[in-house]
Every structure is written in C-alpha cells, then in structure tokens.
Amino acid sequence: MINNMRLLGGYRSRSRRGIALVVVLGMLALLVMIGVAFSVFMRTERQAAGSFQHDVRARQLLMAAQTRALEAIEKSMAGRVYPDWLGLVSPGTGIPLASTDSWGVNVPDNLLLDPQFPKTAGWISVPNGRVGYLVVNASGLLDANTVGGKTRANGTDPKEIDLAGVSDVANSTTFINGRPYESIVEMKRAKAAIGLSGDAFLSDYSLVPTNTASTLFDLSGSDGVLSGKRGQIKAILDANFPALNSDMVIDALLDYVDADSLPRSGNLNAPCSERVPMINEVRIRPVLIANAMAGGVDLLFQTTVEMFYPFVSIKTGKYKVAYSITVKSTAPAGFPAPAAALTGISTEFSFLGEVFKSWNITPGTRTLITCVPWGGTQGSYDITIDYLRLLDSGGTVLDQVENLKLSAAANTFPKITIPVAPAPVNDSYWGGLECADPRFNYMNNFWFTYRAAGAAMVDTVVATNGTMSPATTNAIARFWLARAGTDGHIWMHTADQPLQSPAELSYLIRGAAALTPANSAWKTLRLLDEGAQKADPIFSSFTVSSTNKIQRGFINPNTDVPDVLAAAMRKMPLDRYPGDPDDAAAVKVSSATALTLANAWLSDPSIGAYMTKSDMISNALYRLAVSNAVNAMLPGLSVAASAKEFRYEAGFRNLLGLMNARQNYFIILLFGQSSASVKLPNSTKTIETVRADQTALLELWRDPVSRVVTNAGAVSTNYPMVIRRFDILSQE
C-alpha cells in the first residue's frame, strides 16, 4: 500500500510538472503573439507616422510653391501693369498640364482651350521634396457676380455690361437671378441650371480700390455743392488746362449741372451755356410801300431775326423777343427824318428742337417813316439795334444782344442805303450781321457783316457776300468752324443734372483770357486729341466718385479677350447723352459692330500698358472704328451729319466709365511632392521616391498700383495682394 501511495504521489508530481509546462508554453506563445502584434502595430504606426509626415510635408511644400509662384508673378510684372502671358509655369519639365485633370474644373474653359495655354510645368527641387506651379492670368474676364442686369446707357455702372450677348450665356436673366456664385467650379457644374451653355469668359471675383496714387478732385453733386468748390476747381484748371478761361468754364459747368435755364452770370454779359435759343443773325431790309394819303411812300425797316438751338436734346418752352431799334438819317438836309427809337415785344413762339428759326419783326407801327417823293435824292440811314432780348413765357431774360450798329460812321457795319425814288427796293439794299459763335453773341467783336466783301476779320480775309442764310449755318460760323482746334460741329449739350462722368466736361466752352473768335469760337474742352491740339487732362484731374468703398465689376482695359470688350460695347448708345431718358429708338451698337470695335481696341499697340483713362483715349484705331460705325449708322438720324464728332466721342464717353486697370487676378495651381531617399539593393546609390503628392488652388487679386511703406525708417515699395481662396484639391 505504501508502494502504491508512492507510485500515486509520483504520478501526481509528474502531472503537475506537465501542466506547468503547458502553461509556460502557452504564456510563451502569448508573449510571442503579443510581441509580433506589437512589432506589426509599431511598424504600422511608424509607416502611418511616416505617411502623415510626408502628407504634412507635401502640404507645407505647397506654401513653398506659393512663394515661388508669387515671386514669379512679381518678376514677370516688373515695369508692367498687365501680364503679357496667359500662363506662367515653374521652370523645367515633369508636370503634365492636361485640361482633363481634376484641377481643370477650376479654370475657365476659354482659358484652358486657348492655344497658348501651357502644356507642362517643371519640378523645382527643394529639401525633402519638390514643388511646381501654374499661374493662369484671369485678369481680363467678366465678373459673374456683378456685371449685367441694367439697360445699357452712359456707361456709369458695371451692371450695364450686356451679358445677353456673351457667348455661352444662354439665359442672362436666369444667370443674374442665380447670384452669387462662389467659384468657377460651381458655375461649371451648375451650367444649364443657371443659364449657361458654356464657360462664358467669366470669373467670380473682381476688386478695384478707390484710393489712387494721385488725388482726383471730386465734381459730384449739385450746382450748389460745386459753387462751394469754385476756388479749388479754378486752381486745378489754371494749373493743368492751358490757355482757357477758367472762370468761364466753371460758369458753364454750373449751368450744365443746374436744372434751370438762367445763365449763371446773371447780367447776361457772359457766354450762354444754357439750353435756350440764342440770337444768331439779324437782317434789316428797307421796304417802300405806296402811301396815297400822304402823297408819297411809307418806308419800313423790316427786321428778320434768326435764333439758333443746336442742342442734341430738346428742352421745350415758349419764348418772345423784346427789341429796341433806333434809326438815324445820314442823308443831306431835307431827307426824310426817322421816327424815335421803337421798342416792342414779338409774338410768342415755340422752339421745339429746330436748329434755326427765323421770323420777321416790324418795329412799332406799320409806318416807320412817311416820305414825300424825293426825286433824285439818295439817302441812307445808320441803324442801331439797342437790344434784342430773348424772354421766356414768364418774362425772364435768357439771352441778349446790345448795341449792334449798322453804321458807316462807326466803321463797323454798312449803313442802309435808300435808292432814288421811285426805284424798287430789293435785296441789294439790306444789311445784316452774323455771329461767329452765338454763345458769345453778347460781344460785338463776334458779329460780322455778310455784306462786306473782303472785310478784314481778326487775322484773315473772308468774303461772305450773299443772301441771308436762315435755316443754314452762317457763312461766318462755317469759317470759324473750319479752323484748327475747334469742335468742327455746332452741336451742344446741357444735362441739367449732376455729372455722371468726368467725360461730360468736354461739353463745356473753354474760352480764353482775351475773348476773340480766333481763340474762343466753337472751342470746348477736348476729350480727345484734335489734330495738333492735345486732349485736356480731364480724367487725370477730376472724378465724380465720392465713395471710399471697394468697387467691383469693372473691365480691365488691357484684356485680350474680344468677347469681354464687346460685352461693354454692345448696345452702347452713340446718340444718347447724360440726362436724357433712355430712348428705344436711339442708335446703339449692334453685337456684330461691338465685336468689330473690340478687335479694333485690341489692335492698339498700347494694350497691356493702359493704366489711366487718359491712356485709353489715345486709342486711335478704336476711334477710327467708332467713326466708321457712326458713319454707317448715320442715315436717317434726326441730328445732322455735323454731329458725327459728337457721336464717336460717345464711343469713349459712354465706355471708359466701365473700365479700370487696377485689377490683376490670377488662378494659381500649386503642386507639392514629399520624397525620401532609398538605397538601392547591393549598391551604394540612392534614389528619391515620392511619398506624398498634393495639389492646391489659390485665387489671388493683385493691385498694379504700388504702395510705399515706411517701417522703422526703412522705405519699401510693394503691391497689395488679396488671397481670396485657398483649397486643397487632392492628395495622394
């Protein structure tokens, strides 16, 4: 039994040792498994950490790519106001730029499909990776969120830019109602739902600061506001506008802006710049009428007055002419003596837009002088027009002419000669006067007789013999119109409302210190160069914008996209003027003509260098194209052909307000790759392998106007930039 117990105890001891072995082996297996798992986990963690490290590095390298791209932009823009490239790429090769890549949806299709769009970019090596960039010039596109939605008028609001004619805008109303658009990709993906059939030359952002390097004087506001600025305006005119009468220009400006018809001077001894008829020509003709009761004849002096109203827009009203005429005999003793000075007021008349209007006035009663037969005696009379005054229906004097003389004694105008009775009186016996420019009719030296063959006039000799010229431009006026430096046309405009554009200053008479026809007749401020006469610095001196808010929607005049320019020119009125109501019958530029004008604009060698509106008015090729368009559209218009100059100036006046060069806008693609060095097996060589790849999109606005910055005494020049958008597009 004892042996059996021993045997049993030995068995149990061996059993316990076996269980311990199993437990130990299990623990070892578990430890091995934990070790392997930990090893695998740590390897995964290490790889994940490495991958994250490369992703972060690749993303950080995008900042390096951004810095390189911005540096490249600044270098390429040195001395420029507009890029001369469509795409700017990092140097070298290795980055294919296929428009079908995922980033392509962020670039307008018309740029992607342009033959000049870059096909490749290059990798630039940097520590632990490489970077690249593509900069797309989107500066010359239309702002999808701002342009369109208003009737095309005088070009004072970017909403006047006509989207209805832009290719790929299938429904401009739907497109405008769907604003705002946050990105180009949004517009591309929405497309038909927002009225687009294509990409339509559209960007989604524009920005124009109002601050400028030079200060422009603000001419916005009523005549009362401008009256308070008279001294400042005069100082600018005297300093920058040569050979003009600054006080006269300011008076004309105030008359242009105010709503009444009363000349600014008050005493009428100043040029007429209001939209009222002006006294332009006077003829006095003797008429002999048999008078049986007196046994002789009645001698009347029939006075014909011509009024002049060459305004492109009509301001209706009723008028009268008050007159006083004195007749003095210069005949030998016994010749019939005249009556006293006769005065009166003409019958009321309307002036509804005619350029000229003539009517007869018989001063006083029908019989001015009663005569007896005087046989062979021939006599003559000196006649003084004491005054002719234009009155409105309320009796207010709007225009006047004083002390005009038809007098041999005054050596100014010929006297009226009466033939030997009973010879008939005909047109050989009348005398008359024409005004060189009726705006200056208050000055005697602007009046000339058209009966004086070869009469000396200022600095030349002109023969103006002929009959009186009612309803036609006076011979003397035609003479002065043909001189260098004049407008070349008789047409005028007064808005009777605050200025909408500085270009309206070109409607104002300029005058001179010494007012003579040679230096003042038919001369206004010059919007454009006129032969040797250079344009006045209107745009570099004045503005009508008093806002300090950021402005949007303006077109960069340096754009090379014809469709963009055509959108601003389409429906541009060529015979509509500031202050006029929109006229459905107005002559406006068609879509085909707009594209012709746009291409003419782009033909100018200064494209890419325009910075100011004064630069833009030098575009002679565009000016010629506008002139040709006006000539083609002229037949059937109510305003005479002499107004063509006025119309093709509208091609600038009604366009430049939609343009501003202070916008460089770029879509920038940034590429970054993180890499690691790998040693080749059985070799001492290593290769760089790409471990992470990222692409980003940057939209950048840049101001081509520099700013001078002083910091701690150091002066530097920089160009403000705004990063509007930064998106990570993809990562691998």
Helix count from the secondary structure assignment: 14
Give the low-pLDDT segments: 372-376, 408-414, 451-466
The total count of strands amounts to 28
The backbone outline, from C-alpha atoms, is rod-shaped
Structure description:
This protein is of the alpha+beta class. Helix content is 24%, strand content 24%. The chain contains 14 helices and 28 strands. The strands form 8 sheets. Strands 1, 4, 5, 24, 25 and 28 form a 6-stranded antiparallel beta sheet that branches. Helix 10 packs across helix 11 (591-602) and helix 13 (620-633) packs across helix 14 (644-653).
How is this fold's topology laid out?
Blueprint: H1 2-76, E1 87-89, E2 94-96, H2 109-112, E3 120-122, E4 124-126, E5 129-137, E6 142-143, H3 172-177, H4 184-190, E7 202-203, E8 217-218, H5 223-227, H6 230-240, H7 246-257, E9 278-291, E10 296-308, E11 318-329, E12 342-345, E13 349-350, E14 356-361, E15 369-371, E16 379-392, E17 397-406, E18 416-418, E19 431-435, E20 447-449, E21 455-457, E22 460-462, H8 475-481, H9 517-520, E23 542-543, H10 562-569, H11 591-602, H12 613-616, H13 620-633, H14 644-653, E24 664-679, E25 686-702, E26 707-711, E27 714-718, E28 721-731
Q: What attributes does this structure have?
A:
six-stranded antiparallel β-sheet, alpha+beta, 732 residues
Short account of what is shown:
With 732 residues, the chain is an alpha+beta fold. It contains 14 helices and 28 strands. It is rod-shaped, with a radius of gyration of 42 Å.
